[in-house]
Amino acid sequence: MADQKLSDQAYTTTTSGADLFINIPLGGGVFESKRITHSSLLAGNNAAIAVLQAYDTQATQTVKEQGKSGNFTTVLGADVKLESIDIIWVSGTPNVKVGTTGVGTNDVISGRTPTSGIPSINPLNKYWVGSTTLYFTITGGAVDIIINKRNNYNS
Length: 155
Description:
Order of helices and strands: EEHEEEEEE
Largest sheet: 6 strands, antiparallel
CATH architecture of the largest domain: Sandwich
CATH superfamily of the largest domain: Nucleoplasmin core domain
Protein backbone atom coordinates (compact mmCIF):
# COMPACT_ATOMS: atom_id res chain seq x y z
CA MET A 1 0.00 0.00 0.00
CA ALA A 2 1.36 3.39 -0.99
CA ASP A 3 1.86 6.15 1.55
CA GLN A 4 -0.81 8.86 1.61
CA LYS A 5 -0.41 12.49 2.52
CA LEU A 6 -2.07 13.40 5.79
CA SER A 7 -4.33 15.83 3.93
CA ASP A 8 -5.65 12.87 1.89
CA GLN A 9 -6.68 10.89 4.97
CA ALA A 10 -10.36 10.52 5.85
CA TYR A 11 -11.72 12.62 8.72
CA THR A 12 -12.74 10.77 11.83
CA THR A 13 -14.43 11.68 15.10
CA THR A 14 -13.27 10.62 18.53
CA THR A 15 -15.43 11.22 21.57
CA SER A 16 -13.47 9.51 24.34
CA GLY A 17 -10.75 7.07 25.30
CA ALA A 18 -8.50 7.50 22.29
CA ASP A 19 -5.11 8.89 21.47
CA LEU A 20 -4.31 11.49 18.88
CA PHE A 21 -1.04 11.14 17.00
CA ILE A 22 0.58 14.21 15.49
CA ASN A 23 3.77 14.80 13.59
CA ILE A 24 5.59 18.06 14.15
CA PRO A 25 7.97 19.13 11.40
CA LEU A 26 11.43 19.94 12.75
CA GLY A 27 12.88 20.94 9.39
CA GLY A 28 15.00 19.19 6.80
CA GLY A 29 12.40 16.45 6.35
CA VAL A 30 12.64 15.42 10.00
CA PHE A 31 9.46 15.03 12.07
CA GLU A 32 8.87 14.48 15.74
CA SER A 33 5.89 12.27 16.58
CA LYS A 34 3.71 13.02 19.59
CA ARG A 35 0.83 11.15 21.18
CA ILE A 36 -1.87 13.11 23.03
CA THR A 37 -4.69 11.51 24.96
CA HIS A 38 -8.19 12.61 24.07
CA SER A 39 -8.81 13.83 27.64
CA SER A 40 -5.61 15.93 27.66
CA LEU A 41 -6.50 17.49 24.33
CA LEU A 42 -9.92 18.56 25.61
CA ALA A 43 -8.94 19.49 29.19
CA GLY A 44 -8.69 23.21 28.43
CA ASN A 45 -12.01 23.22 26.58
CA ASN A 46 -13.74 21.33 29.39
CA ALA A 47 -12.41 23.81 31.96
CA ALA A 48 -13.71 26.73 29.87
CA ILE A 49 -17.11 25.06 29.52
CA ALA A 50 -17.31 24.61 33.30
CA VAL A 51 -16.63 28.34 33.81
CA LEU A 52 -19.36 29.24 31.31
CA GLN A 53 -21.83 26.87 32.96
CA ALA A 54 -21.12 28.40 36.38
CA TYR A 55 -21.68 31.89 34.96
CA ASP A 56 -24.90 30.76 33.26
CA THR A 57 -26.37 29.43 36.52
CA GLN A 58 -25.76 32.85 38.11
CA ALA A 59 -26.93 34.97 35.16
CA THR A 60 -30.20 36.84 35.39
CA GLN A 61 -33.17 34.55 34.89
CA THR A 62 -36.51 35.95 33.74
CA VAL A 63 -39.88 34.49 34.72
CA LYS A 64 -42.92 35.80 32.84
CA GLU A 65 -46.40 35.49 34.32
CA GLN A 66 -48.76 36.74 31.63
CA GLY A 67 -52.38 37.86 31.79
CA LYS A 68 -52.70 37.60 35.57
CA SER A 69 -55.93 39.02 37.05
CA GLY A 70 -56.05 37.25 40.40
CA ASN A 71 -53.81 36.29 43.29
CA PHE A 72 -50.96 33.86 42.69
CA THR A 73 -47.67 32.79 44.20
CA THR A 74 -44.23 32.01 42.89
CA VAL A 75 -41.44 30.31 44.81
CA LEU A 76 -37.86 31.54 44.69
CA GLY A 77 -35.31 28.89 45.59
CA ALA A 78 -32.61 29.33 48.20
CA ASP A 79 -29.70 31.71 47.51
CA VAL A 80 -31.66 33.97 45.13
CA LYS A 81 -31.27 37.70 44.54
CA LEU A 82 -34.46 39.36 43.30
CA GLU A 83 -33.41 42.14 40.95
CA SER A 84 -36.77 43.48 39.77
CA ILE A 85 -40.46 42.87 39.31
CA ASP A 86 -41.94 44.70 36.35
CA ILE A 87 -45.70 45.08 36.00
CA ILE A 88 -47.19 45.66 32.55
CA TRP A 89 -50.80 46.79 32.14
CA VAL A 90 -53.09 44.42 30.17
CA SER A 91 -56.63 45.58 31.01
CA GLY A 92 -58.81 47.38 33.57
CA THR A 93 -57.40 49.39 36.46
CA PRO A 94 -55.13 46.86 38.13
CA ASN A 95 -53.52 47.29 41.52
CA VAL A 96 -50.66 44.96 42.40
CA LYS A 97 -49.06 44.24 45.77
CA VAL A 98 -46.24 41.76 46.42
CA GLY A 99 -45.34 40.32 49.80
CA THR A 100 -43.56 37.40 51.43
CA THR A 101 -45.94 36.50 54.24
CA GLY A 102 -49.29 35.98 52.50
CA VAL A 103 -51.92 37.30 50.10
CA GLY A 104 -52.47 41.02 50.59
CA THR A 105 -49.05 41.68 52.11
CA ASN A 106 -46.85 44.34 50.59
CA ASP A 107 -43.36 44.10 52.09
CA VAL A 108 -41.80 43.72 48.62
CA ILE A 109 -44.01 46.08 46.55
CA SER A 110 -46.48 48.23 48.47
CA GLY A 111 -48.90 48.74 45.58
CA ARG A 112 -48.61 49.69 41.93
CA THR A 113 -51.24 50.70 39.39
CA PRO A 114 -49.78 50.48 35.89
CA THR A 115 -51.67 52.09 33.01
CA SER A 116 -51.72 51.50 29.29
CA GLY A 117 -48.32 52.46 27.89
CA ILE A 118 -46.81 53.19 31.32
CA PRO A 119 -45.47 49.99 32.93
CA SER A 120 -44.39 49.86 36.56
CA ILE A 121 -40.66 49.05 36.61
CA ASN A 122 -39.56 48.10 40.13
CA PRO A 123 -35.82 47.54 40.79
CA LEU A 124 -35.58 45.69 44.10
CA ASN A 125 -32.15 44.19 44.90
CA LYS A 126 -33.45 41.84 47.60
CA TYR A 127 -31.58 38.70 48.63
CA TRP A 128 -32.85 35.59 50.40
CA VAL A 129 -30.59 32.86 51.75
CA GLY A 130 -33.47 30.40 52.12
CA SER A 131 -36.35 29.59 49.80
CA THR A 132 -38.99 32.35 49.68
CA THR A 133 -42.56 32.48 48.41
CA LEU A 134 -43.73 35.70 46.74
CA TYR A 135 -47.46 36.39 47.12
CA PHE A 136 -48.97 38.53 44.35
CA THR A 137 -52.28 40.28 45.10
CA ILE A 138 -53.95 41.62 41.94
CA THR A 139 -57.27 43.47 41.94
CA GLY A 140 -59.21 45.54 39.39
CA GLY A 141 -57.63 44.35 36.15
CA ALA A 142 -55.04 42.18 34.44
CA VAL A 143 -51.27 42.53 34.18
CA ASP A 144 -48.18 40.80 32.90
CA ILE A 145 -45.57 40.22 35.62
CA ILE A 146 -41.89 39.96 34.73
CA ILE A 147 -39.61 38.68 37.51
CA ASN A 148 -35.84 39.09 37.08
CA LYS A 149 -33.69 37.10 39.52
CA ARG A 150 -30.25 35.57 39.96
CA ASN A 151 -30.06 31.98 41.16
CA ASN A 152 -27.04 30.70 43.12
CA TYR A 153 -26.17 34.29 43.92
CA ASN A 154 -23.73 33.55 46.74
CA SER A 155 -22.61 30.10 45.59
